[in-house]
Design brief:
The chain is α+β, with helices and mostly antiparallel strands. It is built from 2 helices and 4 strands, in the order βαβαββ. The termini are far apart.
């Protein structure tokens, strides 16, 4: 299953926080497609993914938009 999350217009730290929340609702094998416009998201979201143990499949940057495809691998290590 692929869930799409449009975070366009949101600024740091909201894209990473909303990505973390969305990942908690997924089961292993699901994908989360994150669309955002904040340039810091290319740093913040991959750092988050390293913490959760999940996997960034694709990172795309085009016309001010960033697209990340994240595979849910493990249950998130809850830090609330």
């Amino acid at each position: 299953m692929v869930t799409r999350l449009d975070l366009s217009g949101l600024k740091c730290p909201l894209p990473a926080l909303k990505t973390r929340k969305a990942l908690k609702g997924l089961t292993p094998g699901d994908f989360l497609e994150v669309h955002c416009t904040d340039p810091l998201a290319v740093i913040d979201i991959p750092n988050l993914i390293r913490e959760t143990g999940d996997k960034v499949e694709i990172t795309e940057r085009a016309e001010g938009r960033i697209v990340l495809l994240i595979e849910k691998v493990n249950r998130s290590q809850s830090t609330s």
